[in-house]
Amino acid sequence: MADNNFYEPVDGMSMPRFGAMPTFMRLPYVTNFSATDIALCGVPWDGGTTNRAGARHGPREIRNMSSFIRRTHHASGICPYELCNVADVGDASVNPIDVNDTIVRVEDFFAEMHASGAVPLTAGGDHLITLPIMRAIARDEPLGMIHFDAHSDTWDNYFGGARLTHGTPFRRAVEEGLLDPKRTVQIGIRGSVYDLNDMNFAHESGMRVIAIEEYFELGWKRVMREAREIVGGGSVYVSFDVDGLDPVYAPGTGTPEIGGFSTYEAQQMLRATRGLDLVGGDVVEVAPPFDQSGNTALVGATMMFEILCPLAEAVAVRRRDG
Ligand code: MN
Ligand code: MN
Fold this sequence. Notes:
By secondary structure, the chain is of the alpha/beta class. 33% of the residues lie in helices and 17% in strands. The chain has helices at residues 58-65, 80-83, 99-116, 130-137, 169-175, 200-205, 212-218, 220-231, 263-271, 295-320; strands at 38-43, 86-91, 119-124, 143-148, 179-189, 208-211, 235-241, 277-284. Residues 149-151, 241, 243, 255, 285 line the site of one manganese (II) ion.
């Protein structure tokens, strides 16, 4: 079907989707980053969680449930495998009992990927993993970000001095010049707080924080219209925490908050990133031990595909424009 040498998913008409090895999207497992344009990968880490652990098991279950995803997007018509070379490059190495060692290992993995020219689309893992990814890919200039989450993840520290947790990555990323807070939008923020000042950093740094009450007031179309204006024409990272969804749709996560957006709304919002200069993304906080039906892993895999389609277009546009 394709007139290029790009990798293809295993054909569902020659091997049914429940068969064969469960790589991301049934793509080849490729260990050479330089052979890929978009590297689907996992970070099996949950040592940054401050409540229920379990996201270390996310990449395997998301790989498994990604077998359900067919090759072409039904609404946009995008087939990412015709636009660029997409492969499963495996997981970053982590040290499950040492956060500092893990941060270095994960950054090294993504730095090698970045140096080879591949862009990452990552399955977590808890949200801390986005910090070493940004350290690897945002060295030259700070990124814009569209961030779906119930939580702002801009805390300073936990337990009196722990600065590397899944509640702190975006504060660190701003401090380190990796993330431009004025080109950052957070969508879906909610839940009880320890203190009403918890959100001060996000607001004072200039992030646009769209709490869930305002989200439902505006609706997803207006939210995304504004998000696109805020991130503008520069490079954009998409970070999708499944706890941004209502836990009715994604119960398998460590820090659920009721009253979130739906899977359908999330799909519409991710499709609305089409045309932005996307440089990577992640889907984090899928925690299979709390995912009795397996549906949260399916949600995670589907959201990865929703990000993959506009990301593949962005990669193809950058190649065309040199
Ligand atoms: Mn988060
Ligand atoms: Mn969250």
